[in-house]
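Retro notes, item 3 of 5
We never archived the inputs for the beta-D-galactopyranose complex last cycle. Fixing that now. Sequence and ligand:
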Amino acid sequence: MKRLCLMVLCFLYWLHHQAVKASVTYDQKAIIVNGQRKILFSGSIHYPRSTPEMWPGLIQKAKEGGLDVIQTYVFWSGHEPSPGNYYFGDRYDLVRFIKVVQQAGLYVHLRIGPYVCAEWNLGGFPVWLKFVPGISFRTDNEPFKAAMQKFTEKIVYMMKAEKLFQTQGGPIILSQIENEYGPIEWEIGAPGKAYTSWAAKMAVGLNTGVPWIMCKHETAPDSVIDTCNGYYCENFYPNKNYKPKMWTENWTGWCSFFGTGVNVRSAEDTAFSVVKFIQKGGSFVNYYMYHGGTNFERTSGGPFITTSYDYDAPLDEFGLYNEPKFGHLRDLHKVIKQCEPALLNGVVEVISLGNNLEAHVFRAGNGACAAFIANYDTKSAVKVSFWNMQFDLPRWSISILPDCKTATYNTAWIAQSTPKKWTSVWSVFEWHSYIEYPPWATEQDAITGNGLWEQVGMTKDTTDYLWYMTDITIDQNEGFVKSGKWPVLNVNSAGHALQVFINGQHAGTAYGGETNPRLKLSQAVNLKPGINKITLLSASVGLPHVGVHYETWNVGVLGPVTLDGVNEGTRDLSHWKWHYKVGLKGEGLSLFTEHGTEAVEWVQGNSLAKKTALTWYKTYFKTPDGNDPLALDMISMGKGQVWINGRSIGRHWPGYKAGGKCGDCDYAGYYVDTKCKTNCGQPTQRWYHVPRSWLKPGGWNYFVVFEEWGGDPTGINLVKRHW
Ligand code: GAL
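Structure as it came back at the time:
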């Protein structure tokens, strides 16, 4: 009997131990991993925005920065390029990425979405999804739900098969379904509510063993946790008092749009927001982004999202420390961890120390004590006395006393850092050029129809480019023929950029911008008696990634297209016969690859084309020694795309200068609603990341630029970051 009892006891002990060993739960205070409440610092690093070769270094730096968790979305468009054809290689090797995190001893928060927003083309959905019959995105729609469930299951089963959930001994402690659905549900009502409860049930039913999250989604059904996204989240509370207060996106800066300033956020304000959140009971903070990286190829959303996704994150686009932000947050994490016992197991006392001055004191039964002393005034520093001690508090700052006595950290104490510089490593390229002339209706692959057609319906987003072609016969008796006063062509487009050619000659350029992707071109054009060819090149610059039914937003020349100044006044060409051609000739010939290079005649030396629209450039350069990150300084170019060794670096557009207002933000302090911008009057993006691993070690690299507007390639410079 005694022996039996002992065996039962042993068994119970083992059971308990197992449960504690591999469990992720939560209570009102925190996420509980293996039976322990935790304050978790997390950072977003999106695997396709860097290369697998960069991942270990980035994750190590994140660990050094004091992170416990790496958060990533899952990028459906990269994983299922066509229905049922899955891809998990190279930058899309999700399992490898998660294992790199695991090897570093960090946890993972996997935001499956599969809607991700993220400034990713079409919000992360593959473009083919838009063309599934009867589909409507992110609502109570059967074709959509079926596709979403299939992909979510695919990812969950894959994670399970690789034993990556924490309950299986893996690093994933949290998942996410959907993304910021709250505002959409609010707007669309009943079908939104039905979709929410379906999505939560579907996700929870997958039995991952770890909690699910729905960010910015107040109606998240149990057991899913609703969380906050924003610059400040201290006043956010989850929808049930038994859920922890979590911050899934603390924006460390913001994304950039071609044509507007580059958004930045001070290290001081970022740290201040974190401490404010924690002193009001928050226990999970994720930095969005911790490493932003690069929108390679045509992955950037938009329209107009830049190729760089630097985000002013603690690790810059190239994986280097963005100081002082990186170090300041690292120090913050260290000191908060010292306070963890008091914060998670204690009770809080809030003490007013005067106008805009406050102390939060946390005391636990075991004697642990931590205090935060805050000055919320945005203008003035103060000397404050607390428990007969004196503290100097800069404006808009909080001091942390991990032992309730000594202030070892203040959110506004910042170490100065020197700005980073680029140095040239290769500037004398031997360029060759090839000019691509506008196509004509009689060409192979040209399609003819009546009226103006939507662009993505034609291209299926396999390319940025769609040609619109028509011809117009000008009578000898047209008044303008005699007067010489050219008629005006008006082209209205839903976006995003446009070039006009008349009889093969470049005649005008127009483009939209962040606040309005639409564009209108009005241009006097030289039409001659007889037949004239009008050729329009419409370019998309990233498909929308956010908004109610953003999948229905149009791209391309939808009209009206009119000609003013003819005998009858205005001639409307919108409903004429138009011919269409998808993509560039050079794309079709794969001029960006070495095997495609022979397809056309290139010229060089004195014949090199400069300042000419639709020009392809090619050259070779030798891989520079060392490991410093590399970039292309594209300052002398207009707009187009860049490839190295056949791989797409992304869209370049230094010709689009940042408009708007810069500098009306207070860097050291208060983060105003109008985001802090830099770079006004300069190209929004001048430098383009060239991943080291895409180059041939010690060898020569095939480098191609397609220039849409006209530029001077001799001004292109390969540079490295000098730190
Ligand atoms: C959030 C969204 C993220 C990202 C961010 C802006 O609202 O959840 O995916 O788009 O905005 O960078």
